[in-house]
Design goal:
Layout (H helix, E strand, L loop, with lengths): L10 H33 L1 H5 L5 H32 L2 H19 L5 H4 L2 H29 L7 H29 L2 H8 L1 H5 L1 H12 L6 H9 L6 H5 L4 H31 L5 H29 L2 H23 L3 H27 L7 H18 L1 H12 L3 H24 L11 H7 L1
Length: 446
């Protein structure tokens, strides 16, 4: 019997699959650590590290430490981006995973305010900075590692695997958080049980490290080394793509981060303190939305590979804006069914833009400076969007006593992103099929 060797999974195909799974596993574990902090900040840290403050002000202080991780992410992105463009993607991704695991494990060991006073929040902030630096190196690097291994016609699909790690990490963090809470009394969980999910980070990251060490280096970077095309200062070189394209790319992706963190983190404190929802119900609702988010990413990335991502991204940006108008009114009914619909709507809409934002950012830059340039855009968007969203939302709520201000904040930032996306794709139309194209060729092709 004659078999067509083209239908056998060859070494190259097996290597691609291994890289895709390794980036998914690594980003899942990193986002597990990062989201675990967000959940704890919304529900626990105000009592453990800021007990002298009122509940609302303590929550605002806890969300401030949450934002610190985002402020540290650009530093991680710049450092890891520089070395990722100079020595390779693989080594930097291994280091970033280790940093995240160490930071999260140590958070589980920090004594609370009653034990060491002022030093408790100081140490918490220090470990949050370590987390932020580690995730700053992970965000762009994992997307590049997977995308640069992609076969012809599947660039968005492969770039979407690391993006799946975001909702997967949220599901894992919330599942372990809820399980720990369920087996312990409320008093025990708030006293010491919350530390268990952080201490588990050490085991989970060790597993992820074994998986990540088995992958091969990016073919794009290997080609750069072979041609001797390594850039001495890749960040400086990446800025040569021009301010218009850089700024529009940033604006196009900033809303996704803001909306995601408002619904994943801020709603936990808002729903429990102001609407009377049970915290387990809210965490389960966010988790269900994240499952839907995870499951639909491969669908949307396949659509992007087949039909192009421009129209899909713009439509998704408009859909997020419209759902932000409906989200808090649904939540404010204090009706559990409508609240679940609000969360599931977010889980369905957010992945439309989230799944391809990594490849859109990466395509802004040539391969030799792609890690540095992508990190710059991604981490700046993370600060302006996700890092500040829970804190700004809490401040608006405290100032007005209503969620209306939060809704307007999200609508404004979504409108800015929608306008940025439309302008970006007019400036440089997006082609998601085929190899990397210079701007002039890409414009002619679409």
């Amino acid at each position: 019997m004659n078999e067509n060797p083209e239908h056998r999974p060859g070494p190259a195909e097996a290597a691609r699959s291994r890289v895709a799974m390794a980036t998914l596993a690594g980003t899942t574990l990193e986002w597990y650590d990062f989201f675990l902090y967000g959940t704890a900040a919304a529900l626990i840290f105000n009592k453990q590290f800021f007990p002298s403050l009122s509940p609302s002000v303590g929550t605002l202080a806890a969300f401030s430490t949450f934002a610190v991780g985002f402020i540290a992410r650009p530093l991680g992105g710049l450092v890891f981006g520089h070395f990722g463009d100079r020595i390779g993607r693989k080594a930097t991704l291994v280091v970033s995973l280790v940093m995240m695991g160490v930071g999260s494990t140590l958070i589980g060991l920090i004594p609370n305010y009653d034990s060491i006073g002022f030093w408790a929040p100081v140490l918490l902030v220090a470990m949050r900075i370590v987390q932020g630096i580690g995730l700053g190196g992970e965000g762009a690097g994992a997307t590049l590692m997977s995308m640069e291994h992609a076969p012809e016609g599947k660039k968005n699909l492969y770039a979407g695997f690391p993006q799946m790690g975001t909702p997967a990490g949220l599901v894992l963090a919330n599942a372990i958080f809820l399980t720990t809470n369920a087996v312990l009394s409320d008093a025990a969980f708030e006293s010491w049980g919350w530390r268990i999910p952080f201490l588990l980070s050490f085991v989970l990251v060790a597993i992820g490290l074994v998986i990540r060490l088995r992958v091969t280096e990016s073919p794009s970077f290997a080609g750069i080394l072979e041609k001797g095309d390594v850039v001495r200062f890749p960040l400086k070189e990446s800025l040569k793509v021009g301010f218009p394209r850089l700024s529009l790319t940033l604006l196009a992706v900033v809303a996704n981060s803001a909306v995601a963190y408002a619904f994943m983190v801020f709603t936990l404190s808002y729903g429990t303190q102001h609407l009377g929802y049970d915290k387990q119900f809210l965490v389960l609702s966010v988790t269900a939305a994240a499952v839907l988010w995870f499951a639909t990413i491969p669908v949307w990335t396949t659509v992007a590979d087949r039909y192009g991502r421009r129209t899909m991204f713009i439509a998704g940006s408009a859909a997020i804006l419209l759902w932000c108008i409906a989200f808090f009114p649904l939540l404010n009914t204090e009706n559990s069914v409508l609240a679940v619909i609000a969360f599931l709507g977010m889980g369905l809409i957010i992945p439309v833009t989230h799944c391809v934002q990594g490849s859109i950012i990466a395509d802004t830059f040539p391969a030799r400076v792609r890690y540095s340039g992508s990190s710059l855009i991604l981490q700046t968007a993370a600060i302006l969007g996700g890092g500040l969203a829970p804190m700004i939302s809490t401040a608006l709520l405290n100032a007005t006593g209503s969620s209306v201000g939060v809704t307007w904040y999200l609508v404004v930032i979504c409108s800015i992103s929608l306008a940025g996306a439309i302008a970006l794709f007019r400036l440089v139309p997006s082609s998601s099929r085929g190899p990397e194209l210079p701007a002039v060729q890409e414009r002619a092709r679409v």
